[in-house]
Structure formats: C-alpha cells, structure tokens
Amino acid sequence: MDRFLFLTLDGLSRGAVYAAFALSLVLIWRAARIVNFAQGAMAVAAVYVAYSVSTSTGSYWLGFLAAIAAGLLLGTVVDLAVMRFVDHRSPLNPVIVALGLVLLIQAVLGMIYGNEFRPADPPFSRSALTVGGLAVGSPYDLFVVATVAAVVVALAWTFTRTAIGLRMRASAFAPEVSRLLGVKVGGMLTLGWALASGVGALAGMLIIPTELGLHPHAMDLVFVSAFTAAVVGGLDSPPGAVVGGLLVGLLLSYVSGYAGSDLTPLAVLALLLAVLLVRPAGLFAPVTARQV
C-alpha cells in the first residue's frame, strides 16, 4: 500500500509537468489549429539559455526567468518569421515546417553546446519527505505542483476574465468576425505562440532536472507523453490537457514502478492508440469538436 501511495504521488508530480507541456500544445492548437511538433525542441532551446545564464551568474532563478523570456521570444520569432509564411490550406504544410524546425533547432544547439549531457540541478532537494513513515514526495515535487497550479490558474483567469484573453479566444474561433470588430487577429496569434512557447519553456525547466540532464534531444520522449496527454484530454480543452497530463503521469509511474521503466514508452503509445481509436477528439472535447 505504501508503494502504491508513493507511486501515486510521484505520478501526480510528473503528470503536473506533462499537463503544463500539454497545455502549451493546446494553446497553439486553439490559436492556430496547428500541432506544434517543434514545441519540445523550442523548450530545450529555452532551457539552454537558462543554463548559460545560471552558469555565468551563479543564480538558478535568473536562469529560470531567462528561460521563460527566451520561450516567449522564440515563440514570437517562430510565428513572425516562419509560420506566417506557411501555406495553411493544407494541414500537412505546418507539420512539415514544424518537423524541419525540430531538426534545425537541435542541430544548432548541438553545434553551440555539443551533444553531451549537461547537469541540470533542481533548485530544491529531490529527497523524499516522510510523514508517518510514508514518503510523500520531495520539496522539488511540491515546487513543481505549486508552479504548474499557479500557471493553470493564471491562464484560466487571463482567458476568461481579461479583455486580451477574450480577444485571443475570439481570434481563434472567429477570425473574420474578429477583424470586422477591430481585433488585430495577427497580433493575437503571435501572442498565442509566445504564451505557448513560454509555458513550454517552463515545463522544460521543471522536467529536465528529473531526467538524465540537458541535451538537444532531452524533450523528445517528454513531447510524446505531453502530446498523448493533450490528445487524451482533447486538443480543444485546456482543462482536458491538465487532466490528461495527470493521467499520463500516473500511468508512467505505475508502469515504471510495477513493470519496469523499459515499458513506459510502450504504455504511452498504447494509451495514445487507444484514445485515437475510441475517441479521437479526446475525453474532454467540446460537443462541437466531437461532431466535426
């Protein structure tokens, strides 16, 4: 029983990061109807910026802020310099361009930083705390959960309670009507890319210290898990992305704890295949999304 509780708490902590990354994929999908396969590589690039800043200044938190800023900037540049010039009449074109961006970003990172693993130390201890003889997670796990929860609340408030959030939602779902009402749809789209990339950078900062370390390909498997979480919840549903992330985190924790870590990639792919076969729009997709 103690092992089950430990794996559950560990899965929720990991799932919180997958939820944040899945949320970044949902933000892009809702804003531009694009699955950004370059999101993982963009997140790694932002973490490398954090590594450079932290190494030169000795401050993790300056690096943390630099990663978020780099994510926001990179998302803006990708939209203005690349995605604006893609022919969106075929849904395959943005996918091909995004995959090209993955190769480009990873190649540039390899040329600048090399392909060896670099240390990515967390700001808090990863040693498990015990309450009544039961391991309940580490201080870093608590930091991860609290950070992701704060981001989810902030995004929910932005999109439901602020004028700019309402403009972003209107631009995504009715761009022509929004233009007639004076909304700068292009600017809202760029803002959506920036926010998604910033959230992805945050997820990278949270997940990479729990993996082998910083590497140009450090987010490849994380992207698969986060994409699965987004599909499970529904690409049109931000709450679904959060729930999907937690479900994927629990699945990975249970499979790793009871069957071995070698089976975790197969478990994720099996879950993705099952959802695509049974409910392709996702478990929490809106009614209109299910009818399309």
Task: Describe it.
- 73% of the residues lie in helices and 1% in strands.
- The relative contact order is 0.20.
- The chain is mainly alpha-helical and 292 residues long.
- A two-stranded antiparallel ribbon has the order 1-2.
- Helix 1 runs antiparallel to helix 10 (238-258), helix 2 (39-57) runs antiparallel to helix 3 and helix 3 runs antiparallel to helix 8.
- The protein contains 12 helices and 2 strands.
- A hairpin with a 2-residue loop joins strand 1 and strand 2.
- It is globular and about 65 Å long.
Brief characterization of the structure:
This protein is an all-alpha fold.
Features:
mainly alpha; two-stranded antiparallel sheet; 1% strand; single chain; 2 strands; 12 helices; 73% helix; 292 residues
